[in-house]
Design a protein that fits this description.
Blueprint (H helix, E strand, L loop, with lengths): L3 E2 L2 E2 L11 H12 L5 H14 L4 H7 L4 H14 L18 H14 L4 H12 L6 H10 L16 H17 L4 E9 L10 E4 L2 E4 L22 E6 L6 E6 L4 H14 L5 E6 L8 H7 L6 E5 L10 H13 L7 H18 L1 H4 L20
Parallel strand pairs: 3-8, 8-9
Antiparallel strand pairs: 1-2, 3-6, 4-5, 6-7
Helix pairs in contact: 1-2, 2-4, 3-4, 9-10, 11-12
Length: 378
C-alpha cells in the first residue's frame, strides 16, 4: 500500500500538470524513441502519466511495477530531469546522490584512495544517509564519476627517467647499426622454487585469462602442496630475434656462473664476430673475474648494462613470467628433480620451439617510467 501522511496518499500528492510544454515534448520523444533502452521509455511513460493526473498506484498497475518504484522515478526526474531517467547506477535504479554529493564523493575518493567499495559505501551512508545495497550499482556510479580501480605499479625509489630514455636510445641505435655477424641477447638469473604456486589469473597480451578448468559444479578442486622448498638456480640468456636460449643450471649465481653463461653463448654462435649481452647491474656481472675473462684475446662478448631498478627494460624478465605460467602455476611435482626437469625443458626446448606463440608477450617494446607521473602511495 502507498505510504500516507495524515490519511492522504503520498502518490496522490503528486499534482498533475507539473511538466512544462517543452519538458513534456522531450519526454514524449524519449518514450517514442525506438532506439532508446526499454527501461528509459518506461520511465518516461510513467512521468507522462503522472503529469496526466494518474496516481502512482495506477501507473504502477499499468506498467506492472510497484508504486514505490514510480515514486522513485518521479523524485529522480525532479532532481535530474530527463537525463536522470537514462542513468542506472544503483543496480537497476538510478543514483540518488545529488550533483553536490557526487562532487564531494569524488573529492573524498581522490584524497583518501579507499581500497574497497565497502569503504566507499560506508562513506556514502555516513555522509549522505544513503545505502547502496548493490556493489555493481556502486561500481557503475564510480565509473560514471570517472573513478576506476587501480593496481599501483611497483617503481624503484631511485628510478631515473633520463637514464631509461638514454638506454632505450642506445638499444635502438645498436639494433639499427647491427651487422650480419652480430647478435643481441638478454641475460638474467631466476630461482624457481619447488612448491605449488596457486594462481587464479594471469595476463597475456593485456587480457586476463583463468588458470583453471571446466568441471562438474559440485566438484571442489585443489592443488596438492609439496613438502619441499628446494629451489633451482638458473643463469640464462634469450635471443629475441630467434627465440634461442642458453640456460645454465648452477649451484650459485655468481661471477663464475656469469662466465659459464658467456662461454655458452660463444659456443652457441661460433661464426659471429660480436655478441651483445644485456644484463642488469647485479654485482657478479661487474666482478673482476668477469672483466678479466672479457679481456682475454679472442673474446666475442660485449656487455651492456640496463639501468638500475628497471626490470621492465629486460625482456627475459617476461620470459620468467611465461615459465611460471606454463610450468609452476597450479601444478604439483612430486620431486624437485621432476620440477627442475620441467623448468629446464621449457626454457631450453619449448621456448625456441614455440617462440612464434611466445614472442608477442616477451618483447623489447620498451617504455620509460617517469616517477613524477605517478602518485606514490604512502
Amino acid at each position: 500500500m502507498p505510504r500516507s501522511t495524515n490519511g492522504i496518499s503520498v502518490c496522490d500528492m503528486i499534482r498533475p500538470g507539473f511538466l512544462s510544454a517543452e519538458e513534456r515534448k522531450a519526454l514524449v520523444s524519449q518514450a517514442r524513441n525506438g532506439l532508446a533502452e526499454h527501461r528509459v521509455a518506461r520511465r518516461a511513460n510513467a512521468i507522462l502519466l503522472l503529469d496526466d493526473g494518474w496516481s502512482c498506484e495506477r501507473v504502477a498497475q499499468a506498467l506492472f511495477l510497484d508504486d514505490d518504484t514510480v515514486r522513485a522515478w518521479h523524485k529522480l526526474y525532479e532532481e535530474r530531469g530527463a537525463v536522470g531517467l537514462e542513468q542506472f547506477d544503483a543496480g537497476g535504479s538510478s543514483s540518488r546522490l545529488s550533483q553536490a554529493q557526487e562532487e564531494k564523493l569524488k573529492a573524498w575518493v581522490s584524497q583518501i584512495l579507499p581500497r574497497t567499495t565497502r569503504e566507499i559505501g560506508a562513506f556514502i551512508q555516513r555522509e549522505f544517509g544513503i545505502v547502496y545495497e548493490s556493489r555493481s550499482g556502486l561500481i557503475a556510479l564510480l565509473h560514471r564519476l570517472g573513478l576506476e580501480y587501480h593496481k599501483p605499479e611497483v617503481i624503484g625509489r631511485k628510478l631515473s627517467a633520463e637514464k631509461q630514455h638514454a638506454f632505450i636510445e642506445h638499444y635502438e641505435n645498436l639494433l639499427n647499426s647491427l651487422g650480419p655477424d652480430e647478435a643481441v641477447v638478454f641475460g638474467d638469473a631466476v630461482h624457481p622454487t619447488h612448491a605449488a604456486r596457486q594462481k587464479r589469473t594471469f595476463i597475456v597480451s593485456g587480457k586476463r585469462s583463468l588458470l583453471g578448468c571446466w568441471a562438474p559444479k559440485e566438484e571442489k578442486l585443489a592443488v596438492e602442496q609439496t613438502s619441499g622448498r628446494e629451489r633451482i638456480n638458473i643463469h640464462g640468456a634469450l635471443n629475441l630475434e630467434t627465440g634461442e636460449t642458453r640456460m645454465i643450471e648452477v649451484e650459485t649465481v655468481n661471477a663464475i656462473s656469469t662466465i659459464k653463461l658467456l662461454e655458452a653463448l660463444e659456443a652457441l654462435y661460433p661464426l659471429l664476430a660480436m655478441i651483445h649481452v644485456f644484463l642488469d647491474n647485479a654485482p657478479y656481472h661487474h666482478a673482476h673475474l668477469v672483466q678479466d675473462w672479457l679481456s682475454q684475446p679472442g673474446r666475442r662478448i660485449k656487455l651492456h648494462f640496463i639501468p638500475a631498478y628497471c626490470p621492465h627494460l629486460n625482456p627475459i624478465e617476461r620470459l620468467w613470467g611465461a615459465m611460471h605460467r606454463n610450468v609452476t602455476h597450479n601444478k604439483c611435482y612430486q620431486s624437485s628433480r621432476e620440477f627442475a626437469g620441467e623448468v629446464l625443458t621449457f626454457l631450453r626446448k619449448k621456448v625456441p620451439q614455440t617462440w612464434d606463440q611466445l614472442r608477442d608477450s616477451v618483447t623489447d617494446n620498451f617504455r620509460a617510467i617517469n616517477p613524477e607521473q605517478f602518485r606514490v602511495l604512502a
